[in-house]
Amino acid sequence: MDRLALLKELTLLPGISGFEYFIKDFMIEQLGELAPYEQDRLGQITFTMKGQADTPKILFIAHQDEIGFMVADVMDSGLIQFHPIGGWNKYTLLSSPVEIITSSGEKHAGVFGSVPVHFTRGGKDKTPEMSNMFIDIGAKSRKDAFENFGINIGDPIIPIPYFYYEERNRRIISKAFDDRAGIAALIELGKALKDTSHPNTVYLSGSVQEEVGGPGSRTLARTMDADICVVLEGAPADDIPGIPFRAQT
């Protein structure tokens, strides 16, 4: 699998905080035969690449999860109420398509909506709060959503995956570069180290729940015995209007 295909596969996989199992399984598929690995109860995974010496021990870490949403409730009308998982800007949501993934693995497409401006007086230019938005999946009622669509409270919701690559300018559009690019780098590093002699022990860790405060990485910091830690993270763009340029470190 080349790097572009690897990045495409990873960014299209669903994996909001607390539901990272698709990413973990993919890492096992890619690296499981190359190095021994351990998993913890949070869903984190660490591969160990032994070198010529036990030390120094170097930990490379990237987080598996992405931001998303969770089903909070279903209205009598069948519209879905949701809770954000991770940091979202409300201005980006309305009319955006999403998928709800049920416990049986079914995916149901929906779209963010709110009360139309035709029915709001004096508030045509005001974006509603998330608490006043909903997701429409086409269910006719609360019962229909539960029984026919198989929706349950707590089901994860992700933006509908989309991957576009412009070969001429080498530009990519997709979701979840933060931090599937880091996971891709871990996989590439693991494959490179397989046939490379190195004088140390290397740990490759996929952490969880970074987007909701990072309990996974804090757990790894307390349980790993690494001498050095290298964090592979997807930082926000700093070349956009409205913010002063500053180099990211």
Coarse morphology: elongated
Structural class: alpha+beta
Number of strands: 13
Mean pLDDT: 92
What fraction strand? 25-35%
Order of helical and strand elements: HHEEEEEEEEHEEEHEHE
Question: In this structure, how is the largest beta sheet organized?
Answer: 6 strands, antiparallel
In short:
The protein has 249 residues and is α+β, with helices and mostly antiparallel strands.
What does this structure look like?
The chain starts with a helix and ends in an 18-residue tail after the last strand. The longest helix has 18 residues, at 177-194. With 249 residues, it is an alpha+beta fold. The protein has two domains: 3-66 and 176-231, 3-Layer(aba) Sandwich (Aminopeptidase), CATH 3.40.630; 68-159, Peptidase M42, domain 2 (Elongation Factor Tu (Ef-tu), domain 3, Beta Barrel). The mean pLDDT is 92. Helix content is 22%, strand content 26%. A hairpin with a 5-residue loop joins strand 4 and strand 5 (80-85). Strands 5-4-9-6-7-8 form a six-stranded antiparallel beta sheet. It has five helices and 13 strands. It has helices spanning 3-12, 21-31, 142-147, 177-194, 215-223, and strands spanning 37-39, 45-49, 57-63, 68-74, 80-85, 97-101, 107-113, 134-136, 156-159, 164-166, 171-173, 201-207, 228-231.
